Description:
- By secondary structure, the chain is an alpha+beta fold.
- The chain contains 11 helices and 12 strands.
- The protein is elongated and about 75 Å long.
- The C terminus is likely disordered.
Amino acid sequence: MKPNIFDIATKELHQDAFITWLLQYSDKQYEIVDPLLNKCGREFITKLIQTKIPDFEEEINTVVADRQWDNIDVRAKINNKYLIIIEDKTVSSFHSNQLERYQKSATIWCVENDYLEPICIYLKTGNDSKRNLKKVMDKGYTVFQRQDFLAILTKYQKCSNDIFIDFYNRLKRLEKINNQFEQKEIGDWDGNDWQGFFQFLEREIHLVNWHYVNNPAGGFWNAIVNWKQWGNYPAYVQIEEGKLCFKVSTHPEDIEFSSERKRSAVRNDLHQLIMKQAEKENLVEIETPRKFGNGNYMTVAIVKRHNWLGKKESTIDPKDVVNNIKKYRKFLDRVIQTSPKEYEKTETTGEIAQGHQVIH
């Protein structure tokens, strides 16, 4: 395989440059220079505009595209009538109120220049959870994912331009490695496999969220399977790459935590309830953690990787894995339902679906 410039230039700025370059090539004056590249760019623009105006079928004549206008990654003015702004992401996600700010700037510009309302695009060539993507759409953006981009580029794969070929091959390879977890031995999984696996789980069962946790120990990918109220405390099942963990939150954003009650007492109570129920149901694979923590999010019991996902030298059986996760999710429900009266539901201050992301 020959060297690929986008395997070397992997930052978002380089992807911004490719997108801007493709948009610039969409102007009608470049049709004679590279007909396939010009046609690809015009189809790309058409698809983006159709996210806002479904019946759009105008011919693309003039395109003026640039980068970093008012901190917006990519901006394109089409036919002196339409404005497209693109927030371009590879691995990272949106932060603070950047999407709202960009949309406001674009809207003001459109009013001042007699353009239609801006077409706001969130283009992501990496992976993101459904929960995060829904947040983007709630802010008035259309999500344009790697698979959407590939669907267009694949039609023009015979294009002879080296820049186009390198970007297309890079994107195609990212898609391939994202979907190879079913063929790889579990012990060889890396971050790409966990992302692909979590996307698979989102299609099969409901996940609250999944994302990367960056911590001093080196970080890991995790998925939050459910979020249940155990008295005043959220209890949940979380997949931390290898381990399946039963956890409890005492985070101030989730509960009104009383200083009179120690976190360790909450942790120990749920641990004892889980272990008692596991013994009752003969679920011997549910174990005590090697070490207890005392933070906002605490693991109270675990199931080791080989007991729910598979042995390291094997490949996964998707059906069995989904059934295992459902089993432990229902198990936690039973633990909560059989808890003593002192843990009956009381008022809470927030839920994960509306608040922050659990990261531990």
